[in-house]
Amino acid sequence: MILSLISRLVNGVKEGVKASLKGVSDVGTAIVGVVREVTVTTLEETGEFLSKGVEATASIVKGAISGVADVGASVVGSIRGIVMGTVRGFMEAGGERKPAVRGAVSQAIHSAKELGLDVGEVAVEAVKGSIGAVKAVGGDVVEATKEAVSVAIEAAKDIGEETVAGVKEALSRSIEGAKDIIEAAKEK
Question: Does residue 50 surpass a pLDDT of 80?
């Protein structure tokens, strides 16, 4: 039953994003609002997904990425907005930061691998999107940064050691504080 609900959620988000982006010339600018609105609407209509935080946000990200790809827009260029819209919408609908960030960042990484994208680049955009979303709703940005960086590395581990190294390098270069977070994780 859960798989059926998640599958419907992915497809519903995909179609909602596609419909909202048709004819939009600047997808990068529009995507945050589109995904945020789709997230809030979806969660209001199916409140049961709030209790499934990680799965819900992962499903929304997966559906949004599919929708963006179907309209022919750059997926990598849209990742930050997709993650930002998902996390922000989830939190505005009453969900908690941690599962929102965890599900959105992790799914972005897994989708990048499935689509043959640069996983390090996608990790940076996903982390930036989650930080931006948490900042927009007035949440704890330091904790969100730690969570997003840690999740990106965890998700990369599912792919392989070479991917982990690439993600760590990309995050260290591009995300303020990421190098310290990665070093602290090694000491544990």
Answer: no
